[in-house]
Amino acid sequence: MYSEKVMDHFSNPRNVGEIPDANGVGTVGNAKCGDIMRMYLKVEDGIIQDVKFKTFGCGAAIATSSMATEMVKGKSLKDALALTNKAVAEALDGLPPVKMHCSLLAEEAIHAAVEDYIKNNPEEAKKAGIEL
Amino acid sequence: MYSEKVMDHFSNPRNVGEIPDANGVGTVGNAKCGDIMRMYLKVEDGIIQDVKFKTFGCGAAIATSSMATEMVKGKSLKDALALTNKAVAEALDGLPPVKMHCSLLAEEAIHAAVEDYIKNNPEEAKKAGIEL
Amino acid sequence: MNRIYMDNAGTTPTSPEVLAKMLPYFGECFGNASSIHSTGRDARKALEEARRKVADALGAKPNEIYFTAGGSESDNWALKGSAFARQDKGNHIITSSIEHHAILHTCEWLEKHGFEVTYLPVDEYGRVDPADVEKAITDKTILISIMAANNEIGTLQPIPEIGKIAHAHGIPFHCDAVQAIGAVPVNVNDWNVDMLSLSGHKFHGPKGIGALYVRTGTKLESFVHGGAQERGRRAGTENLPAIVGLGEAITLATQNIEEKSLRIMQMRDRLIENILKIPYTRLNGHPMQRLPGNVNVSIQFIEGEALLLRLDLAGIAASSGSACTSGSLDPSHVLLAIGLPHEIAHGSLRLSLSDWNTEADVDEVLKVLPGIVENLRSMSPMWDDFISKNNQ
Amino acid sequence: MNRIYMDNAGTTPTSPEVLAKMLPYFGECFGNASSIHSTGRDARKALEEARRKVADALGAKPNEIYFTAGGSESDNWALKGSAFARQDKGNHIITSSIEHHAILHTCEWLEKHGFEVTYLPVDEYGRVDPADVEKAITDKTILISIMAANNEIGTLQPIPEIGKIAHAHGIPFHCDAVQAIGAVPVNVNDWNVDMLSLSGHKFHGPKGIGALYVRTGTKLESFVHGGAQERGRRAGTENLPAIVGLGEAITLATQNIEEKSLRIMQMRDRLIENILKIPYTRLNGHPMQRLPGNVNVSIQFIEGEALLLRLDLAGIAASSGSACTSGSLDPSHVLLAIGLPHEIAHGSLRLSLSDWNTEADVDEVLKVLPGIVENLRSMSPMWDDFISKNNQ
Ligand SMILES: Cc1ncc(COP(=O)(O)O)c(C=O)c1O
Ligand SMILES: Cc1ncc(COP(=O)(O)O)c(C=O)c1O
Q1: pLDDT at D127
Q2: Which of A128, B10, B37, C320 counts the highest number of beta carbons within 10 A?
């Protein structure tokens, strides 16, 4: 059912954990539906220097979290906001149809963390050419 | 589905054929239903000296015809009239439920042949103590 | 005794190649295809591979194939599932009078539940006239179901034409192709069918497994409700060994079909030609438009079951449309529908060939059959009456 | 890797003894049990022998056993067949809220077709109160259907008492015993049931075969219409190899059942005892009235599918009531019915044992499970939030 890439990111998730001095944090999903994702960002000069996640959820939820962090690490805030769930799913060699909502959650979690950063650092964001 | 006795009487039917000078003949059943039995009797002094049959019908029809002829051969007219389909079926170690009508047909064919004899030979029948 | 099996329209043995493919799925790879652990995932892979094979054999897409427990379930599903799903559109169903009981008895059940069914007549060869189908259509017609090939007399129906008519009127078309698979080329697009039933054991696959093809977009209610198997449309833990067997069997059965059929037809035609040399016999079904392996003859003045039993004692397995083989008093509805009188219908013999039969089998049947017929006639009062009438 | 299989409530491998008995019926003895030639007659003998074995295992008479394609078909048949057969008497059906989907979705279908269904609640252990059954009965009630043992949480229902109530009111009683066969002693008379469903693959028999017990005199319409198989009540060419396998499997499964169960219960209880040592876990289902092989625990702050996949990577096959394993967003209806909040229901784990499992399997599960739980919790934001809240 899952691709090898999904299983790889599920069994060896990249960037699990917290960033104690994160300057952007986003949490999406809810326990009732069985998925919660929390993303921590360390942004410097408009660039995501570090990113970590914690996820409560199924295999796809964990794998998409892991992949999403990989995809935004070292990228600009703009790039991170441009991240789509389709791109995450494709990077994982696809997801079963019933699991596509997990990739959406990953997209939303990244976006939420970036937006959190922007809200807390409007000046920095403006410098990077981004406004909410 | 059929007992060994049935298969024996089907594969080696006893008393098949006609009696050219039969003095009692009975035909029952109809082609529409798939069974016709015809019994030929040669009666002397109230005793069935010879009996033969011709049957169009299934395995059970042939086997019950054969068994019925065996059961009345050498018997008195009275005994022949007392022949029941149950007795024929039992003598064959039983018949499948859907085939019980074949044994009934065999009983009726014997009775019809005896009655034919009685009709044609009322005096002889009276001597044997039988009236229609 | 070297037994000869000529009842392949009844059922066929599972071929050793097919069984060999099935075996691992009883033991090592027994998983529940709906489970997410790897035992389950391996099962799913095999399941989808089999689905692809069935689809390929029919010219369908894999997601149009649903596995069932056999031809009867497929037929029940197609009819009841369509009827209930399209109840808002109308309540009229068109079928033929010579369908298998899995269709006819389902239609009778639907009649008890508010549906109306037209049972089209057939001609003396058992053919449905496409013009009759068109005439029967009303604005309440919600389904047409016609079999591809009749199981008793082997007659092939003009399925593509009927499908075209159905589609011209926007009516879904179901085809019971249980007897056709592996016998004639089947293609759901060429045939214009929206649903098609098949059953594994008719072409050297396992028993208890079949499929229903359902064209994308066809409205169909579930028949077996429950778990989410078969994309939520047919519940029940997937019968994986049988499904794998079905995939293999249908692939083998539809390979080189023309070549195989030709060989079978030659045997069939030799049987027919020579059996018809016995006086007072007739061929049932269409002389040309018939299944390659089907021989169905009526042999007057004798009864079918007795004939079968005698053949069986001689080592030949065959079947009959005689009432006596079914326990009812009426002979086959198919033989009556093509106009045979009861007494002739009772004396019918079906020999059905598969590619496992040989010319030697044919020789043997032709060697023993005339003697058996003669013997049974010699003890038949009908034969007596007929002869003495003709001698007068 | 030596894989450990603890998903026996999902399906079981067919045992080699059972498969060995089945094999001749694919090839040599492949006949159609309804044919009259000797190939068919041999088939019939095997068929009736298997029917007797199933009957013996249930304390039933052979002519009360009908073969089906599995538990789902049996359930569908019992419900739809009774509903339509007794429509003149009323339109009300009583069942429980924790039945298998083969019952629940069939009930939903019947609701669309004019029937009314009462879904009885269960207590926190998943037990139906017989008093609730009695209270739910109206003068329109035509059927009561309660499962013997729940497939997820293993809770056993008070079937004999419920049956007694049903009979006191003259209402037929159906029992889905799919999970009970081979696990607890089943007797249709002691249990006061009129119909009972079972499925071969749940007790090391083949897939795609099941049975419905129907007490003599019970009114029941056919579900699969067609040929006259199964005394005219269930159409379709008999799946002989699977039927023979079912007969053998049920005989083996019901032999020494007390002794076998005891061994399985010991493994079960050791699993439960030790898993519950992991903090923030709870047992689902009844502590005593439960299937010998069923372990169902909720492990807070983690999600079931992730847990299953980790176990699978460690060589252990298990299952879960998590929504994520089914593709829906709601977790198991059974876990919700016993009152679990969604977030806890999502983190449930079912380990189901058969007599093929060993104490070594239990050791291995107990060795790897705590680490996996710890690891998944360490990456769970819910765990974080919970810990930091508790630290405040
Ligand atoms: C309680 C219960 N009923 C019915 C079924 C359905 O059985 P099957 O999948 O064999 O059709 C199952 C198993 O899936 C079950 O556990
Ligand atoms: C034309 C036709 N339809 C349906 C069926 C039913 O198939 P099954 O017996 O596999 O359920 C058969 C065979 O029995 C058949 O010949």
Answers
A1: 98
A2: C320
Q: Does B7 score more than 90 pLDDT?
A: yes
C31 touches chain B (CB under 8 A): no
- Compute the average pLDDT of residues C345-373: 97
d(CA D70, CA D198): 7
Using a 6 Å cutoff on CB, does residue C100 contact ligand 2?
yes
Mutate one of A1, A11, A58, A104 to test the D interface: name it (highest D CB count within 10 A). Answer: A58
Mutate which of C73, C237, C243 for ligand 1? The one with the most ligand atoms within 8 Å of its CB, which is: C237
CB contact under 8 A, B61 and C303: yes
- How many angstroms does the Cα of residue D91 sit away from the middle of ligand 2? 33
Sign of the Cα torsion C52, C53, C58, C59 reads: positive
Query: Does residue C199 line the site of ligand 2, with CB under 6 A?
Result: yes
| AA identity, residue A23 | N
Whole-number Å distance, alpha carbon C51 to ligand 2 midpoint, is: 20
Which amino acid, residue C58? L
- Provide the 8-state DSSP code for C173: E
- For the stretch C217-256, pLDDT in tens is 999 999 999 998 999 999 999 999 999 999 999 999 999 9
Q: Is the pLDDT at B131 greater than 90, yes or no?
A: no
d(CA C213, CA C230): 12
- Establish whether residue C205 lines the binding site of ligand 2, counting it when its CB lies within 6 angstroms of any ligand atom: no
CA distance B112 to chain C (A): 15
Once rounded to an integer, what is the mean pLDDT over residues C305-316? Answer: 94
Q: Higher confidence at residue B92 or residue C29?
A: B92
* CA distances for C194 relative to C171, C173, C211, angstroms: 9, 5, 13
Question: What are the backbone dihedrals phi and psi of residue B24, each rounded to the nearest 5 degrees, phi first?
Answer: -155, 125
How wide is the angle at C-alpha D64 spanned by C-alphas D59 and D70, nearest 5°? 95
- Which alpha helices (DSSP H) does chain C contain, by range? 16-22, 38-58, 71-85, 101-112, 130-136, 159-168, 229-232, 240-254, 257-275, 304-313, 333-337, 342-345, 359-378, 381-391
Q: How many helices (H) and strands (E) does chain D have?
A: 14, 12
Name which residue leads in pLDDT, C304 or D39.
Answer: C304
Whether the CA torsion C221, C223, C226, C231 is positive or negative: it is: negative
Instruction: Answer whether A10 sits within 8 Å of D305, measured CB to CB.
Output: no
Residue C267's pLDDT band (cuts 50, 70, 90): very high
* CB contact B26 to C (< 8 Å): no
- Report the SS3 class of residue D203: helix
Helix D304-313 to helix A4-11 angle (10° resolution) is 100
Torsion of CA C114, C120, C126, C130, to 10 degrees: -120
- Mean pLDDT of all residues belonging to chain B: 94
pLDDT tens digits for D65-97? 999 999 999 999 999 999 999 999 999 999 999
pLDDT of residue C1: 61
ipTM: 0.93
Return the axis-axis angle of helices D101-112 and D71-85, rounded to nearest 10°.
Answer: 30
Closest by Cα among D167, D165, D161, D142 to D79: D142
Residue linked to tokens 């807390």: A120
Residues 6+ apart with CB under 8 A from C41: A1, C31, C35
Q: Average pLDDT for residues C103-114, to the nearest whole number?
A: 97
pLDDT band at C328 (very low <50, low <70, confident <90, very high): low
Q: Which residues contact B15 (CB under 8 A, 6 or more apart)?
A: B51, B52, B53, B66, B69, B70, B73
Which of C138, C133, C137, C136 is closest to C157 using CA atoms?
Answer: C133
Does residue C152 have its Cβ closer than 6 Å to ligand 2?
no
Residue type, D292: P
